[in-house]
User: What shape does this take?
Amino acid sequence: MSEAASAHGKGIDELILYVHLLMGALFVGWVGYFLFVMFRFNRSANPKADYVGARSHASTYLEIGVAVVEGVLLIGLAIPLWARAVDNPPGPAEKPVELQVMAQQFAWAAHFPGTDGKWGKQDTKFADRGNPFGLDTADADAKDDISVVTEAFLLPVNRPVIAKISSMDVIHCFKSPAMRVTQDAIPGLSIPVHFTPTKVGDYSITCAQLCGNGHASMKGVFKVVSQDDFDKWYAEKSKAGGAGGSFE
Ligand SMILES: [Cu+2]
Assistant: This one.
């Protein structure tokens, strides 16, 4: 797994580690028990079956122990992590960067509201491969909107990001391994995910849902840069602006 580069990434890695440690302990325990039973209760040692079976309560205590550890993982780690990383998106006070992400066979596109901070009008009647976000180019708020298609898009470091994931054809899945974010992209739905990139660098986006014969080549890149570099790129793109992005 690539190194985590988002604020909640460490919590996910810890949870994965603890779940694997528990599974490892169960695996070793079960294999050990299986071997013990094979030797202890083989036919030559026990020519006649015992109809009472086990008399010790050890297995009950072990089962309770495993259930307690599972409970601690679920209630102590998984649910609080979900509350932090999935529920409760950052509010306006945290100044999140907002974007829409559109999946299409077989590429990714991103759409930002531009320097005015307002999304241009969008309607599915305008949406096609040449205008994946269905921007109404006649709308004044759309003039400075940024559409980035099949090229890298930028995000500032240490600032929360809210990405609304959608698809214009089949079900895809937005996956950024380094950000520890995975969300299905479903036609007709706009599903928000949020994360905070914590390291400058280039990070891949892949599609994690088999979506057709070009699925493996459906790669995207986002660059995490300093706030200054992001502002410069954002202003330039916004000036060029409009519904520039096209899958064609
Ligand atoms: Cu896909």
User: Anything to note?
Assistant: The mean pLDDT is 90. Residues 103, 172, 207, 209, 211, 215, 218 surround copper (II) ion (CB under 6 Å). The chain is about 30% helix and 25% strand. The longest helix spans residues 9-40.
